[in-house]
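Good morning,

Both structures are done.
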Amino acid sequence: MPRLEACRDGSHTVYSEEFGQFYHNPNGAVAESIHVFFEASSILKILEAGLPINVLETGFGTGLNALLLADYKLALGSSSTILFQSVEAYPISNEVARELNYGSFLEHPQLAAHLVPIFERLQHDSIEYQIIPGMKLQVFMGKMEDMVLPEGVFDFVFHDPFSPDVNPELWSNNVFKRLYATCKSDATMVTYCAATKARGAMAVGGWLVARAPGALGKREMTIASKQEDKLNAYQRLNEARLIERFS
């Protein structure tokens, strides 16, 4: 049974007894999510431009990334229409969702009230939910391997499952091939993980891969894309060597 824990910055995370890991960096759940999924990607620039955005998140977790995206949309006054598609095999309980303190870390704290109805419904089935006007949330309740993914749809991938050490099936070559196929030609993928094997699986999956500064004491994270120019600000890795090693 997942249990609530306070990070060092006061924001909540959850500890999974099943996987033996926290859902977020214990130094700060909110700060980590902002750094990895919003500051390292170009999604805030797209929001400012008011362009449509389709996001695929692998691991809904506590719903924090969805809340942050809604908060940024409101704070920027963005006219972007957003599809936020996620997947979750082990949804947290209504009781845990009710205790999460993310409202204290949002510019629009009322958004956090959506977590309870989201997780109440997610206990029983996949859901579709409107957090704010112009942003549709869809969460597939189940494992990613059972999820039907369309081709060429998503602009961003937030790859956020438990680490490769405890959840290797979501860091495989085949998973990254599926993610590549479901994305548009200029898509970007970001993840907190910097494991060489995970980066190798991304390269085998077709992605161009780069290292980026990590969050809250972590030296590195990983950013990948289908287009080279999306990675100009980061240190590219040798995909050919990774493919040779991990294919």
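Second structure follows.
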Amino acid sequence: MQNRPQDSKAFRRLCRTAAQACHKFQMLAPGDRLLVGISGGEDSLLLMHILAQLQRRAPFPFELIPANIDMAFATFAVERLQEYCCSQGWELRVLRLSGSDILDRKGAGDKPCPLCSRLRRGQLHQLADELNCNKIVLGQHLDDLCVSFLMALFRGGGLKTMGPNVAADSGSKRLIRPLCLIRKAEIQETAELFNFPAIKSCPYEAQLQEHGDRYYLEQLLEQLNCKFKDVRSAMLHSMGDIRTGHLLDLRFLNTESDPDQGKF
């Protein structure tokens, strides 16, 4: 009998790490209805497999509702995604937008990612409301958190990143990221075992790799890792150890007590 990828050591390791993240950042609770964003890439497909495994083993019940926002790009094979989800017993919800038309109308062809991301996220929130889901699950991993931190830092956007469990829509729902402690390389290695079908292809991919800030910072992260040992783990630790009294935020200038409890 051929071994299933779900039985591999690599997959079980990712499930343990995701479970640790869910526990550490209080992502899951009894009775949750989770809307899981499925883009068609290996990150989101592996996320759904991990959540399905956690659902089977969790000591309390929660529901999983996979959803895809189809931007109607000619390069995106939504039928393959639907077929794969069906083969796994997942009932995929698909919402379709005329993505190319909207990007062209807004003149966002040179920098499509911010608008495309907002459009997808807005549709996910709308669908979550319609399906009475209290949480939206996204597939960003540790590399994404590190790159987002660098992006905000270099653009003057404050010291922030993609939080693992953050309030959304005035607190009416939460955004959670169970893969936040997992490196991109670990996801790629494990995804190869699943042999996912070729589903996703962004028409702007070549353009973004040549000129995109996020792609540039992804390469920079690799360079930093050559200089600073295990830089992702170091950044993860730093993002969870904020020294407010040693930054320049005026809100903490005249605090009577030491907000950092003696840390330097």
